[in-house]
Amino acid sequence: MANKLAWRTFDGNSWSDETVVADVEQVANLAMVADQGNLALLFSANTEQKVVVFDEHGNPALPAKNDQSDDARFAVLEQQTAAYAALTSSPPSLRSFVVASAYYRGAVRYVHSGVDPTGPLLWQTYRPATNKWSTSEYTFPNTACGPGPAVCVFAGVLHCFHQGVDSENGDGNTNVYWCVSDGLDWSADRATPFTSPSALAIAAHAGMLFCAYLRD
């Protein structure tokens, strides 16, 4: 049975119903990026590059073949990645893991899982104005585990989504959780109304938080 690529929106109070984009065996290169005032959901499925464009009101077009080069779409992300890679003060631990990041209140917030896949997420800050990192890594409170983190700023608050792992025996847990931060600390995890066996993509657009994910 094929998996389904789907998306939902969060308006700050409640989640929308699920909208299925396509039936796919596997999905790769899942991303949501700003594109000239619109939002582009990009993914690879069945050897084809696909795109779903949401207009300035958040209304989606039908999935289409992505014939456009993604150089412009990913220009800002590539610049941030290059700047991060060039940081001589970058903690070695951050370079060892897949890192999600977002700029929030004067600092880049980096989030990653630790050596133990059943352990909590870790986060650290970097302030470009002073070229300084936080003095240590901080542990997310009340977080069972955090593989595949994704972060973005929505409604003036930093949001972090991640997959779950059974902390007792390490088996896969397809539940998706999220927590929020005011820049000082993180809230406890909350469960979303959907599940996903793989990492997801999130972005703020048109006054809503968009979340794209794969489900079986």
From TrEMBL:
Superkingdom of the source species: Bacteria
Protein name, UniProt field: Uncharacterized protein
Protein's organism: Kibdelosporangium banguiense
